[in-house]
Write a structure and sequence with these properties.
One of its GO terms (molecular function) is hydrolase activity, hydrolyzing O-glycosyl compounds. This is Cellulase family glycosylhydrolase. Keywords: Glycosidase, Hydrolase, Signal. It comes from Streptomyces genisteinicus. The protein has 655 residues and is α/β, with parallel strands linked by helices. The chain contains ten helices and 29 strands. It folds into two domains: 379 residues, TIM Barrel (Alpha-Beta Barrel), CATH 3.20.20; 179 residues, no CATH class. The chain is 19% helix and 21% strand. The strands form seven sheets. Strands 3-4-5-6-7-10-11-12 form an eight-stranded parallel β-barrel, surrounded by four helices. A five-stranded mixed beta sheet has the order 18-19-24-25-22.
Length: 655
Amino acid sequence: MALHLTPVRTALAAALAALTLIGAAPPAPPPPGPPQAATATAPGARAPASPAPAAARADDWTPPLSTRGRWIVDADGDRFKLKSGNWHGASGTWTGSGDREDPANHHAGEKADRIPLGLDRAPITEIVDGFLELGLNSVRLPFSNEMVHDTRPVADASVAANPQLRGRTPLAVYDAAVTALTDAGLAVVLNNHTNTTRWCCGVDGNERWNASRTDAEWEADWLFMARRYRDNPRVVGADLYNEVRRSVLDDPNWGRGDRHDWFAASQRVADRILREAHPDLLVIVEGINWTGIPVDGLPHGRPTLEPVRHLSHTLVRSGKLVYSAHFYGYTGPNHSGATGIGETTDPRYQDLSRGELLDALNRQALYVAAEGERHFTAPVWISEFGVGGRDEHGAKQRAWFENFVDHLVAADADFAYWPLVGWHQDRKGNGWALLHWDSAGRRAGVYDGDDWRAGAWSRLVGAQGRTGPVPVTDRWSMLAPDHADAVRSLRMRDTGDWDPGARKAACPDGQRLAGLSRTGNRGLCTDTAARDLWAPGGRHEVVRDERHVPQGGDWASGWTKLQCPAGHFLTGYAVRGATVSSALCAESRTRLGEDARTVWFDRGDNRPASARGGEFAHGRYKGQCADGEYAAGIAYTTRLGSSGNPAALLCRKLL
C-alpha cells in the first residue's frame, strides 16, 4: 500500500490543477501585440474577406417552438434551426480571485459587472443589430442563480453606452436584454450557466446545479425565471445547466438516483417547468461535461450525451426536449483542456483527423438526432463551440474549426457560437468573439476582412439544410422508474397517488404502453398507428387482480394476469421492488380490436423484427407489441422463488 501513496498524492495534486481548467472556454488570449494596420479606419467600415450574409429575417417564424423527431419546429410546423450565439456576462466574468472591480481579475480583462457584456461600450440596439448581421435567429443568454437574487444596482460605468439602464439591478438589465433581442425577432434561450456570478468552468463552486445551492433553491429559481418571461412568446427555451462536471471529491452521474444524478435532477425540474411555470418552453438538457480525475492512469473523460442511448428523458409534455453538447478544439473525448500541470496524454479534438473528429462527434452527441425512431431521438444543439480569431495562427486550431464547421453543416445541426461579444483595443484582445467593441465604441467584426473565420462562418450560417414543413412523426418514449416514480402523464399526476407505496410509471398523454423489460422496470411508450387514443376526461382504471380475465381467456396459464377491461389499453404500471403491483388502463376514445396474442419475454427478447423504439432496457430481456397493436395486460408470477417480474404482455390489434 505504501508504494502507491506517493503516486496517488501526486495524481490528486495534479488533478486539482487540471480540474480548474475543465471546460474553461475559451482560454484567455495572449497579451496584446503591436497594433495591426487597420483594415477599417472608422466605426462601421467593412472590407469583408467573405461576403457577409444578408441580415437575418429573425422575425420570420411563429412561436412557440416544439420538436418533431430530430427537428425543432415553430407553431406552423416549419423547421426552425437554432442559428445561435452566446451573449455572456450576466453569469459572471470574475475569475474568482482578487478585487472584483479590477478588470485584470476578469476573464480576458473583460469586466461585465453581472450583466451581458458590452453595454458599457455600445448601445444595446447596436449590439443586437450586430447579431442580425451575423445571420443569427436566436441567442443563448447565460445567467447565474446569484444574479437572479442580486439587488445591488449595476455601476453607471457598466452601462455607460446605455444610460437608460442606470440604477437597475442585474436582473432588470437582463430583462432589458431579453426585450431588445425578442423585439428584434430573435428567439431567446435562458441558460442557467452558474450558481455564483463568476467565470465558468472549473472547481469553482459551480460544478453542479446544486454545488452552491440546494436542489429546492435551484428548482425555485427556474420556476421564477420561466414564469418571468412566460408572456414573451419569443423566449423559447430553458437551458437547465451548463457543463455539469466533477468537483474535487465527487463525480456527477446519469441515473444512480443520488443527489449527484444529473439525469434525475434535469428530469424533475423540466417536468416542473412545463407543468407549473411555462408549458411552451423547449427544455434543453446538456450532457455531462466531465467525470474522473484528469491524470494518466486514472479513469476520466467527457461523457457528453453518450449515456442518453441507454437512459433518455421523457417529459410530461411531448415535443419539448432538446439535448445539447459543447465542443472546443483544445478539449477532447478524454482531455480536460488543461495545459502543463495536470495535462494528460489524451488527444484533444484538434489532434484528431477529420474522420476521427466526425466519429467522436457522432459517438458523443450527433447520434441522438441522426438515429431516428428511438426512445432518445431528439434535436441536438451544439450550444457552445468557438476558436480564436485574428490572433489565432495555429494550424491545428484552424483546421479543427474548419472541419468542425463542415461537420455541423453536413449534419444540419443546430448551433450556438461562444462568444458573440468581446472587447478589443487596436483590434487586439479576446479574439474569440465574433463582434468586439473598443473603449471608444468602435466595432470590429468577423466580416471586417482580417478575420480568417469569416469563410467558415458564412458557410455555417448560410447552409441551406432542411426548411419548410416537418411532418408529424411517431413518438417513442422511455419509462424508467429505476429509483422513483416515472409518471409522465399530466392526467395521472392530477389524480394523485394511484398506487401508494409503489414506484409508478405512466406514458405521456397521447401515448400508450408498447413494451416492458423482464428486469429493471423499464417501459416503452409510443403513439404510432394511434395518436391520442385516450378518451376525453381521462377515464382510467388501476387493475390489481384478475377480475377482467374472462372465463376461458387464460392467455398466460399459471401466471397472475393484470388485464385491462374491454375498451381499455395499457398506459402505465407500478412495481414494488421488482414485483408488478398494478396495471394502469385507460379508456379508449375509439373502438379497439380484440384479436390477441401473448408475447412472452421471460427467457429472451420478444420484439417484432422491425421493432422501433431502440434499446429501452439495455442488457435486459424485453417484450414489445407490434406497431399496429396495443398492450392490454401484464403477466407475472411470484411462485417458486420468482420475484414477480413481468414475463408476458397481452397484445391486441388496433382497428
